[in-house]
Design a protein that fits this description.
Its main location: membrane. It is found in: Membrane. This is Mid2 domain-containing protein. The protein has 249 residues and is of the alpha+beta class. The chain has a domain at 17-119. The chain is 45% helix and 14% strand. It contains 2 helices and 10 strands, in the order ββββββββββαα. A 7-stranded antiparallel beta sheet has the order 9-8-7-5-4-3-10, with no helix packed on it. Strand 7 and strand 8 form a beta hairpin. The chain starts with 16 loop residues before the first strand and ends in a 13-residue tail after the last helix.
C-alpha cells in the first residue's frame, strides 16, 4: 500500500507521492518530479531546473527528526519552499522573494543533488511489472500459437510431400510394369518366330515336294502313257551306285 504524505501541519498531502516504498520515512514530491538523495524534489521545465523542499511520509517530519525530509525552508518569514544552490554544497531558501547566497544567515549546507527516482516511478514500476506479466502471457500464447502453426505447417508439408511422392511414384511403378510386360511379350514373340518360320518352311518344302512329284508324274504319264511306272523308268536311267547316267538300251 502506498504510504501517505503529510504537510508541515501534519495533515495528509494528497498532491504528492512518496519517493520510496521501502517503509522508511522519505520526502514526498509531486508526480513527475525527480527525487534527490539529499531530500529535495527536482523539477525540470524545459531548460529550467528548480529545487524544492516539500512534504514527507512521516507526520512528525516538521520537527527535523527525519534526515530525508529537510525543513530549512518550511518556516521562513517570506514563505515558499523553493531552494537554490549557491556553491560548495551550500543552499539558500529562495521562497517568493529570492535569497542572498552571501548572507550566512540565509545559507545552509546540504549534500549535492543525486537523482534516485521519480515521484511516479514506483507506480510506474508496478504498472511495468503488470505489463511485463501480460507480455509474458502474450509471449507464451504466441509461443503456443507458433508451435501449433509449426505442427500444422509440418502436417501440411508432410501431406504435400506424400501427395507429390505418390503422384510421381505410382506412374513410375505403373510405367515400369508396363515396360516389363511389353518387353517380355516381345521377347516371347521373338523366340517363337523362328519356330513358326521353321514350321512354315517345312510345310512349304513339303508342299513343293508334293507339287514336284505331281509334275513328274504328269510329265511321265504324258511321255510314256501307262506302259511303266515313272519310278521304274527313273530307275532304268540311273547307273550303278555312283549315280552316273547310262544310255538306254
Amino acid at each position: 500500500m502506498v504510504a501517505s504524505c503529510y504537510n508541515e501541519d501534519q495533515l495528509p498531502d494528497l498532491n504528492r507521492v512518496p519517493c520510496s516504498q521501502d517503509g522508511d520515512p522519505t520526502q514526498c514530491c509531486k508526480e513527475g518530479e525527480y527525487c534527490s538523495s539529499n531530500g529535495l524534489c527536482v523539477k525540470k521545465d524545459g531548460d529550467d531546473v528548480t529545487y524544492w523542499q516539500e512534504t514527507c511520509s512521516d507526520p512528525d517530519w516538521i520537527h527535523g527528526n527525519v534526515t530525508t525530509c529537510p525543513t530549512q525552508c518550511m518556516n521562513i518569514n517570506n514563505g515558499g519552499n523553493g531552494v537554490t544552490y549557491c556553491k560548495n554544497s551550500t543552499w539558500c531558501c529562495y521562497g517568493y522573494s529570492g535569497c542572498n547566497c552571501t548572507d550566512s544567515t540565509q545559507v545552509f549546507s546540504m549534500d549535492p543533488v543525486s537523482i534516485v527516482a521519480t515521484a511516479s516511478s514506483f507506480t510506474a514500476t508496478s504498472t511495468s511489472t503488470s505489463t511485463s506479466s501480460n507480455a509474458t502471457t502474450s509471449s507464451s500464447s504466441s509461443t503456443s500459437s507458433s508451435d501449433n502453426s509449426s505442427g500444422s505447417s509440418s502436417s501440411r508439408h508432410l501431406g504435400v510431400g506424400l501427395g507429390v511422392g505418390l503422384g510421381v511414384g505410382i506412374p513410375l511403378v505403373l510405367g515400369a510394369i508396363a515396360a516389363f510386360w511389353f518387353f517380355r511379350r516381345r521377347k516371347s514373340q521373338g523366340a517363337a518366330a523362328p519356330a513358326d518360320t521353321s514350321a512354315a518352311a517345312v510345310q512349304e518344302h513339303h508342299q513343293l515336294g508334293q507339287m514336284d512329284k505331281r509334275i513328274a508324274q504328269e510329265v511321265a504319264h504324258a511321255q510314256y502313257g501307262s506302259q511303266a511306272h515313272p519310278a521304274a523308268l527313273l530307275a532304268k536311267t540311273m547307273g550303278p551306285s555312283d549315280g552316273n547316267p547310262v544310255e538306254l538300251q
